[in-house]
TrEMBL record:
Pfam families: DRL_cat, GFO_IDH_MocA, SAF. SMART domains: SAF (SM00858). The lineage of its organism: Eukaryota, Fungi, Dikarya, Ascomycota, Pezizomycotina. Residues 365-430 form the SAF domain. It comes from Cyphellophora europaea (strain CBS 101466). This is SAF domain-containing protein. GO terms for molecular function: nucleotide binding.
Length: 482
């Protein structure tokens, strides 16, 4: 089997260059832009943003060659593809509809936009890399089905943590190991749950010079700090790998790489984890604020269990980080480069017809939870804001309580008071049933309520849906193979 770089080089020589369109010229989009012109076989055909000045600044900031850009603003997308130049546009719909475009990178971070763009990709048969984890968790289990029905690839973004975690889980299962836990590190203290855009920079430690230079969005960065983004990413992993979500959600235990196996193995075996293969996030800070030694703040990991003395001995012989018993070990990657690596997803899709991780089931959901006492008439301001934080929970529990997904908790008015730390429900807010994103989410909820009910009765789920097993593997809903 030839490697991806060779396949891309072959495409370059043969003139079968992959045409890519980016929607959203923020941090992730910019990082891909920085790599696009140095990757053979890939052409950045278009950058789409509602504000073209943001798109232009992304090209400038990433040192994108001026001679590869339509500086006049007069070229059509067809002209840009023919001349190997990058055009700028405000119309995602027109870009997606273009017959020569191959792959769309959805980088907006806006749930409603992500849903709309995915449905357009299904309509126009364009593969999609869903960087927009907010949209993926809100409706990904249904969107992925629609993509499969349309014959397109719906993929996680390689370089972002959910895809890298999924890769580690796949490595473990393919190698015949029992998966115990999979997750990532993050900077976290319990008080961060209540952080706001006004307090976020005190916790991050960025200088005024950095903030001015990079024009960082305080609400977006606050969503990383208050735990919402971690909840979304772990829901995506659970839904992509068929892993369980603990009823209490994420614990953010302080833990370094050397202690992952001991800390996250099952409680019945002396650890602090679940009995079933599950997702978790560990904190890079001790509860008193000190840095954890050898912390995993930027990394991803999988904890595995040996199923024989022979495997256990191999863990010791080859330097795996194990617990004291030697039965549990951790494999990890200590960094991730988000958009700088997403070319791997594009190449996998176009050269192998495969995603780099993809949603397959509905195991985890993220429900909006009050950061403070909220009063009737107050407007919710979404993830990373002043009003709500996202909490990870099992999808079945979310449906039971009619939980309001964090992806919709923006711009909605409260109908009644909600106490601090209380989860919000659909009944707590005013919303329009005519909204496309609400319709898609409600349709997904109805589908999975029925599937959960069938599962409770022992009826197998549809083909392609993963069901978690106690041994850390997954079962295909139809044929029982894993």
């Amino acid at each position: 089997m030839s490697c991806l770089s060779e396949k891309l080089a072959e495409r370059e020589v043969a003139g079968r260059v992959i045409q890519v369109g980016v929607i959203g010229a923020g941090k992730f989009g910019s990082m891909f832009i920085a790599q696009a012109h140095t990757t053979p076989g890939i052409h950045l055909a278009a950058v789409c943003d509602l504000d073209l000045s943001i798109a232009r600044e992304a090209l400038r900031r990433t040192n994108y060659p001026a001679h590869l850009t339509d500086t006049t603003g007069t070229l059509s997308l067809s002209d840009g593809i023919a001349s190997r130049k990058t055009i700028l546009t405000t119309s995602a719909a027109d870009m997606i509809a273009h017959p020569s475009l191959d792959v769309v990178l959805e980088c907006t971070g806006i749930p409603s936009a992500g849903v709309a763009h995915t449905l357009l990709c299904c309509e126009h048969k364009k593969h999609i890399v869903m960087i927009n984890v907010e949209a993926d968790v809100l409706a990904g289990p249904l969107l992925a089905r629609r993509a499969r029905e349309a014959g397109i690839v719906y993929s996680m973004a390689y370089g972002d943590q959910p895809a890298l975690i999924s890769e580690l889980v796949d490595w473990a299962r393919t190698s015949g190991f029992r998966v115990v836990c999979a997750g990532k590190g993050n900077k976290y203290l319990p008080e961060y749950n209540y952080s706001t855009p006004e307090t976020v920079w005190d916790h991050w430690g960025f200088s005024a010079e950095q903030l001015a230079k990079d024009k960082l969005n305080s609400q977006i960065y606050n969503s990383f700090l208050d735990g919402t983004k971690s909840a979304l990413e772990m829901a995506a992993v659970a839904n992509g790998c068929g892993l369980a979500v603990a009823r209490e959600g994420l614990t953010f235990r302080p833990c370094g790489y050397q202690d992952l196996a001991a800390c996250l193995k099952p409680r019945s075996r002396g650890g602090g984890g679940e009995e079933m293969a599950y997702v978790e996030v560990v904190s890079s800070l001790e509860r008193d604020g000190r840095d954890v030694w050898n912390h995993a703040r930027h990394g991803v990991f999988v904890v595995i269990e040996a199923t024989s003395e022979y495997q256990k001995e191999a863990f010791a012989q080859y330097g795996m980080e194990t617990d004291k018993t030697g039965w549990f070990a951790a494999q990890y990657k200590p960094w991730h480069l988000i958009g700088l690596e997403v070319g791997v997803s594009i190449a996998n899709i176009m050269c192998r017809g495969e995603p780099t991780g993809s949603t397959k089931t509905f195991a985890g959901d993220v429900v909006a939870t009050a950061k403070k006492n909220l009063v009737a008439g107050e407007m919710l301001d979404g993830e990373g804001g002043h009003t709500v934080v996202g909490k990870l929970m099992p999808a079945e529990v979310s449906l039971e309580i009619e939980g309001l997904p964090i992806g919709l908790a923006h711009g909605l008015k409260l109908k009644r008071d909600v106490k601090k730390d209380q989860g919000l429900s659909w009944a707590d807010v005013e919303f329009s049933e005519d909204s496309q994103v609400v319709k898609v989410r409600r349709e997904m909820e109805a589908i999975f309520r029925e599937e959960f009910a069938k599962k409770a009765k022992g009826i197998k789920p549809p083909n392609g849906v993963l069901v978690a097993r106690a041994d850390g593997n997954v079962t295909n809903g139809v044929n029982g193979h894993h």
